[in-house]
Design brief:
The complex is a heterodimer of chains A (about 270) and B (about 260). With about 270 residues, chain A is α/β, with parallel strands linked by helices. In chain A, α1 crosses α5 and α6 crosses α7. In chain B, the strands form two sheets. An eight-stranded antiparallel beta barrel of chain B has the order 1-2-3-4-5-6-7-8. A four-stranded antiparallel β-sheet of chain B has the order 9-10-11-12, covered by helices on one side. Chain B is elongated and about 75 Å long. The chains are: A alpha/beta (about 270), B alpha+beta (about 260).
């Protein structure tokens, strides 16, 4: 993929996120967040990622979250004792929500508006731990370039932690008549293209902003990490969902799909 | 829809650390040994009282606990059901159960206490040292301790550099200094990565001052040759994989402190 194409896709996705931001402030989730983020021990992290972060050691560490959205996870990481937390996102509209949420919190978070493919060099080698959570990798058109950029933010021997949706899940469509029947190839190369607003619950009408969702195989992810000088030290797959409610249909099956995974990698 | 994710908002109450209650045990003097490798273990009575402790109960304590980025405590049990802890770089020390959560050493100089959360998950250990000071360590995944250990002990092999990597890296650095990366010497995939990061890389290089020297450090376990580039105001560590048909296919760098 060329630089021009990557930049074009990233810009389109940025506009789509910005255009969708207002919808997110009308949800019960946002109201709940605003009411609870003022607590020092606030967390929106589930036991899986909390356990991994604690086991790796986040207390006293400098942490950067790539794709921080409205900042709720940055606040949660700060609650685990991180000494410095920086959230990076390319959507100015979502960062405005992050600032609003952060203003209610006793924790101080630094939010930076930047395309992850073009982060400021002030972030180079500044962090003990970089965090990527669910719903980031699939927005990235080129994983090798993405992880190379991520790796530049991590100190030598620092750790990248990922908690993401499992690529196998991209083969299924939970809203279809037969949601358990594979609907897409695992090896699909072209992105999903959508013109609807980006929401977490239900479907939204088209809003004129086109966005692109890329399917990356596990091998794509592992290869891109290796190419970026990141040595995988942990990889675990889980049967639980960390996605939208509709994906609950895949939980508790006798022939269970892997639904998400955690991965840690150390910078060489 | 694809693209979002459901927000699982788990407002967790602060998990206050809870120390398990002490199980009343039958008092008796117990045989002790000094290390798991000491085959001529000698039997000695201790003045502290060891309680009966099921080896199976120790399984939840077994594992790695982190004091700092590079110092760990490894709690483990040997094949005979004896309990030990071992600090990074030190010999194993045998301990004896004083309670369900507390273990003491043979000379009674040190004590190890395990702490759990309200759900009973072992979260940390506190090592009380012979000078009375206490050091707390958080339980961590084994991979973290092993990774830290391998980073600490990283040794580059002394294999010779792959043909052409040093010259290639020199040409790349010079091309960056001139502001025109030599894309023609890179695979298309790597060229895209460099092109994407170029502005940041150029600023980084400019901030380091004039390029002075390039030193081959050795071969890394991922197959790359490792070089340290020295500039007037800093150093970069560059990894470069063997060239493929004269092209660079994998190359990454770390800033050095």
């Amino acid at each position: 993929m060329t630089k021009v194409l990557i930049q074009s896709v990233v810009a389109s996705n940025r506009e789509a996120w910005n255009a969708s931001a207002a919808l997110h402030k009308t949800t019960d989730s946002w109201t709940t967040l605003l009411a609870s983020a003022n607590r020092r021990d606030f967390t929106c992290l589930d036991a899986t990622i909390t356990g991994l972060l604690v086991s790796i050691g986040v207390a006293g560490k400098t942490v950067i979250q790539l794709g921080c959205n409205n900042g709720r996870e940055c606040l949660s990481v700060a609650g685990l004792g991180a000494s410095r937390v920086v959230g990076v996102d390319q959507s100015a509209e979502f960062l405005a929500q992050a600032q609003e949420l952060s203003a209610t919190s006793p924790h101080r978070i630094e939010f930076i508006e930047a395309d992850i493919y073009a982060m400021p060099e002030s972030l180079y080698a500044e962090f003990d731990l970089a965090l990527i959570t669910i719903g980031v990798l699939n927005w990235m058109p080129d994983l090798s370039a993405f992880f190379s950029c991520v790796a530049t933010t991590i100190r030598k021997s620092g750790t990248l932690v990922i908690y993401e949706t499992h690529p196998f899940l991209e083969m299924f469509l939970p809203e279809s008549a037969d949601p358990l029947r594979p609907a897409e190839s695992y090896f699909r190369a072209e992105p999903f293209v959508d013109d609807r607003a980006i929401v977490y619950e239900g479907n939204a009408p088209p809003n004129g902003s086109r966005h692109y969702w890329f399917v990356h195989r596990l091998s794509d992810i592992f290869t891109a990490l290796i190419e970026s000088g990141l040595q995988i030290t942990h990889f675990k797959e889980y049967a639980h969902s960390n996605r939208e409610e509709t994906y609950a249909v895949y939980e508790g099956q006798s022939a269970q799909l892997p639904m998400c995974y955690t991965l840690a990698a150390t910078k060489r | 829809m694809r693209g979002g994710y459901y927000l699982r908002l788990a407002i967790l109450l602060s998990a206050s650390s809870t120390i398990f209650g002490i199980r009343a045990g039958r008092s008796h003097a117990q045989a002790v040994t000094s290390s798991p490798t000491d085959s001529a273990a000698r039997e000695q009575p201790t003045s502290l009282t060891e309680i009966p402790f099921e080896p199976r109960s120790f399984e939840r304590y077994a594992g790695y606990y982190q004091f700092s980025a590079s110092e760990f405590l490894h709690a483990f049990m040997d094949a005979d059901g004896h309990y030990f802890y071992q600090l990074t770089g030190q010999r194993p020390v045998r301990v004896y159960a004083r309670s369900e959560t507390t273990f003491f050493t043979e000379n009674e100089a040190e004590q190890l206490r395990f702490e759990s959360d309200s759900q009973g998950n072992v979260m940390s250990t506190v090592l009380q040292q012979n000078d009375g000071t206490e050091r707390a360590a958080t339980k961590v995944d084994k991979s973290i301790a092993i990774s830290a250990e391998s980073a600490r002990n990283r040794t580059l092999s002394d294999r010779p550099a792959s043909p052409g990597t040093e010259e290639s890296l020199r040409r790349y650095i010079y091309s960056l200094e001139r502001g025109h990366p030599n894309y023609e010497e890179m695979s298309p995939k790597l060229a895209t990565v460099v092109e994407i990061q170029l502005r940041q890389i150029m600023r980084l290089i400019a901030g380091l001052g004039d390029f002075k020297s390039l030193t081959y450090e050795g071969g890394d376990s991922d197959g790359t040759d490792v070089y340290v580039a020295t500039f007037a105001d800093g150093q970069l560590e560059w990894h470069i994989a063997p060239l493929d048909g004269g092209k660079v296919v994998r190359r990454y760098f770390s800033t050095l402190p």
